[in-house]
TrEMBL record:
Name listed for the protein in its UniProt record: CFAP47-like immunoglobulin-like domain-containing protein
Pfam assignment, any one: Ig_CFAP47
GO CC term (a single one): cilium
A GO biological process held by the record: sperm axoneme assembly
Domain CFAP47-like immunoglobulin-like per the UniProt entry, residue ranges: 78-220
Domain of life: Eukaryota
Length: 250
């Protein structure tokens, strides 16, 4: 029953307040009719009928009684921001660090979707009386799956860190009482020069929930390669010492 003047704009607020970490779907439908109740005339043809069939309502006299706009809405819940995870290493060295992340609010029994990118499948090789990882729906077993990736804040940071950081999921488990899922990643950081860059570990459940874990990669000054001693051969005379430098790249 909202009246709109010609060229007037209408804001339609959509409120999303999820109670579980899964994707919600809805459709916003806008139906517009003339205020005087008259229909819009249009030429009836096979092509126009086909195009207008899904976007208009046709009146008894053949005119257009109303126009429809349909907007699909996907609500994807995102967990609150987590604490910053630091990974530190001296330049020209290599460090491995285990990072443990907690996923709260995972919906048990939700159907899994095909995984893209890196997928973490919750282990189901447990006794038959434990059913928290496998849910049965309509005779088919579905497994809770997760997608994970390391996202960089810019292309420059990606070009610096992309080849220096490796990430691999090594363990996943679920607490039967709280329902919290724990994922343990092995992070490898091998910097070649001092730097400080940030990235975000993004974990997405195939049912729609998203968890983000900010990380900072810090490479400190490398160790001193060697000490060069130059002995003087006399006053106002040059002393020379030679040493080799080897480049790791071309």
């Amino acid at each position: 029953g909202t009246r709109l003047a010609p060229k007037e704009k209408l804001d339609i607020p959509v409120l999303f307040m999820p109670d579980t970490m899964k994707m919600y779907e809805a459709v916003v439908v806008i139906h517009v009719m003339r205020e005087n109740g008259e229909n819009w005339p249009y030429e009836d043809s096979a092509e126009s009928n086909k195009d207008l069939k899904s976007s208009v309502t046709v009146g008894e006299n053949g005119g257009i009684q109303g126009i429809l706009w349909v907007y699909p809405v996907h609500g994807i819940p995102e967990a609150p921001q987590q604490k910053l995870v630091p990974v530190c290493c001296r330049a020209r060295q290599r460090v491995e660090k285990r990072v443990e992340v907690l996923l709260t609010g995972v919906v048990p029994g939700a159907n899994a979707m095909p995984a893209a990118r890196n997928s973490a499948v919750v282990n189901t090789n447990k006794p038959a009386n434990i059913q928290e990882e496998v849910q049965v729906t309509d005779g088919f077993s579905t497994t809770v799956e997760f997608l994970y990736e390391l996202q960089y804040h810019s292309n420059d940071i990606k070009s610096q860190l992309g080849a220096l950081v490796g990430m691999h999921l090594i363990q996943r488990e679920r607490d039967t009482e709280s329902g919290i899922i724990t994922l343990i990643f092995n992070i490898v950081f091998a910097p070649n020069k001092p730097m400080r860059n940030e990235a975000t570990l993004v974990v997405q459940c195939t049912t729609g929930g998203v968890w983000k874990f900010p990380m900072v990669f810090i490479a400190t000054e490398p160790e001193v390669d060697d000490v060069i001693n130059i002995e003087a051969v006399g006053l106002n005379k040059e002393s020379i010492v030679g040493f080799k430098l080897t480049s790791q790249t071309r």
